[in-house]
Amino acid sequence: MADLTQNPRMTAKVALDLIKTPWTLIVVILAAVAILDPGNLPEVVTFAAKALAHTGQYILFAVLLLSYLKATGAEVMVARAFEGRETRMIFLAALFGGLAPFCSCEVIPFIAGLLALGAPLSAVMAFWLSSPLIDPPTLLITAGALGWPFAIGKAVAAVALGLFGGFAVRLLMRNGAFAQPLREYKPAGCCGCGPKTDDKPVWKFWQEPERRARFRSEFVHNGLFLLKWLALAYVLEALLVNYVPADLIAGLVGGEGVLPIVVAALVGMPAYLNSYVAPPLLAGLMEQGMTAGAAMSFMVAGAVSSIPAMAAVWSLVKPRVFATYLTLGVGGAIVAGIIFQLV
After folding, report:
1. Cβ atoms 145, 280 nearer than 8 A
2. How is the chain split into domains, by residue range?
3. Are the C-beta atoms of 300 and 100 separated by less than 8 Å?
4. How does the entry describe its membrane topology (predicted)?
């Protein structure tokens, strides 16, 4: 009898998990188009398929690169950036934030371990601000969807925002702010990945069976992850291009001046999905009249305010530090958009 009462619950949970997957959303969206506008279905599918095929080469290279970094243990190089003088730490933390091959669950125990080892909050803030903005897969996917100038601009904005935030926090701390920034936190992260600076990367990972297995596992996991989110992103872009009036987009975030950039940053905070879905959607918005500066502002603000990024900060520090993180992130997004628009 116990089994009979539990099975329906398990079945419901499995069904709910299935419904929430990007694949299910893709099927539902295409089915809705087939029912409500059957004549436009081939155009929507063709648009999404061509865009996904174009980005496929970037996906493959990004997955190979990320799997290699994971298999070699290259993340220990990031931990070493938090050693030495504070100014040097801020610069290296901002730089490595865009290169670190960490998933969102790994960032929390990694940073918690660094703070426990005495790393200054200024360097940690530099890493926090730059890390959500760019990583190797995001750089390549952004280049595939929006072009290399935009991708490079985002990478520069990530490092610049990290430097700005790091030195701003350093200045505030010298004036007495953030004397005790941390919550009571004991690292028990899901990945168990605190920093181990005495380890060394093994670049020839294929010589060790465990690292070869790690490479295969990461390749399959990250490949499927990127494929499903980008497939959904391009289906949404196809809907955007076909059904959302260009005048509506142009009226909200088009035109010259600072106002569209500010609006894009404020809209990007609650509307952001993740760094893999955003580039294709922004490509569609820019075709509809969104300016390049507004697109940059939207992307930067959205990455800083994404749920994994905010969770990493909120779980470790007190509310005033969290508020400083969001203020620096959104302010930096607006500045990045203005500069990118001018350039």
Report:
1. yes
2. 45-235+244-342
3. no
4. Multi-pass membrane protein
